[in-house]
Design a protein that fits this description.
alpha+beta, 4-stranded antiparallel sheet, globular, disordered C terminus
Length: about 210
């Protein structure tokens, strides 16, 4: 049976993949507009005067100015994300591969217990980091229905990324599994999460990202 740890990890992995796609688009666009001259180097041909006075020859007097504040590029963020994911995959000694996120995703079904719970937390952190860079809220949308855990209404959200068969529902009231919770696959103390088909009304006809 798929546990809540599995569902949280899979949902985070799909969310990271979507955010990474956006980072790749931004990095590619940035590469086509990036200036050729490195930060801190500027020719006096643009009207800048030499310390001795008068306009200097632009070839002979290319001067190094005080470096401007460093701006982190999208490509650097993308590299950082992939490096962090590779670090997680290596920490769990997962089979090698070109894409660290795919390494993790492929290994998820075979992980259980505490290692899986920790991995789900790591992926949640990376998901928040990646979405924070692009100012993207969680890839979820509100749906009608009652939480089968806490019985509250208007507090269910369904994921909007990843294959339809892997979409999940969470309760944004932050209710968690308890020892007497009737929810199948629940892990005590872990936030409620279910496969989309397990919750009534969890299949909106036109999923939209939450504004």
């Amino acid at each position: 049976m798929t546990s809540s740890h599995h569902l949280h990890a899979i949902a985070a992995a799909h969310s990271i993949r979507e955010a990474r796609r956006r980072l790749e688009v931004l990095a590619a666009a940035e590469a086509t507009t990036a200036p050729d001259v490195p930060d801190g180097l500027r020719s006096t041909v643009y009207g800048q005067r030499h310390a001795a006075g008068g306009h200097a020859d632009p070839t002979a007097t290319l001067t190094t100015e005080r470096r401007r504040a460093r701006v982190t590029t999208w490509a650097e963020r993308l590299t950082r994300l992939n490096d962090r994911l590779a670090g997680i995959a290596d920490m769990y000694r997962l089979p090698p591969g070109a894409d660290p996120l795919q390494r993790i995703h492929t290994a998820l079904p075979g992980l259980h217990g505490r290692p899986l719970g920790l991995l789900a937390l790591h992926l949640a952190d990376e998901d928040e980091l990646a979405r924070g860079w692009i100012n993207q809220p969680p890839y979820r949308t509100r749906i009608p229905g009652e939480c089968p855990g806490c019985r509250r209404r208007e507090c269910l959200e369904v994921t909007t990324v990843g294959p339809a068969t892997t979409r999940t529902v969470v309760c944004v009231a932050d209710c968690r599994h308890t020892p007497d919770c009737p929810c199948p696959g629940g892990v005590e103390g872990v936030r409620h999460i279910w496969p989309r088909g397990a919750v009534a009304g969890a299949a909106p006809t036109r999923p939209k990202h939450r504004p």
